[in-house]
Amino acid sequence: MSDMVLEIAELRRLTTLLLDAVERRHGARIDLSRWNVDYYWDIPLQAAFDMDNDPAQHVGCGQVSDDLADLHGAPDRSKNDAAILWHDLTHLSGLLRALAIVDLADTA
Questions:
Q1: Integer Cα distance of 38 and 27 in angstroms
Q2: pLDDT tens across 34-76, in order?
């Protein structure tokens, strides 16, 4: 198996392990507003993976509260709507990064 093959079952297992660890350390409900983590620097996906060009011109702003609001509506959308999968995954990554900075701040 190549090192660059992503097994979804393995990703699901690792995600569950990490989220279980977050819950043990920080509880089942995390008030993100307490940590002042609403706004963050964001680079669009295409720019983030384009190593031939400087991403500085593409840096924008993401917002955790927007990530939360958008993902709250995700279960109501069609399971077959592949056009928004990348969008939802991007919002999910914003929330995971918020959890990472909360844990970093809490352990520092």
A1: 19
A2: 988 999 999 999 999 999 999 999 999 999 999 999 988 777 7
Per-residue model confidence as pLDDT tens digits over 3-18 = 899 999 999 999 999 9
Q: Helices (DSSP H) in the chain: which residue ranges? A: 8-26, 45-48, 64-72, 85-107
Q: Tell me the DSSP string of 39-57.
A: EEEE--HHHHT-TTS-GGG
Would you place residue 78 in the very low, low, confident or very high pLDDT band (cuts 50, 70, 90)?
Answer: low
State the greatest distance between any 2 C-alpha atoms of the chain, in Å, as a whole number: 43
Count Cα neighbours of 62 within 13 Å in the Cβ-side half-sphere. Answer: 24
Q: Where do we find the tokens 């279980």?
A: 20
Please state, as a whole number, how many other Cβ atoms lie within 10 Å of the Cβ of residue 64: 21
Dist CA 80 CA 93 (whole Å): 21
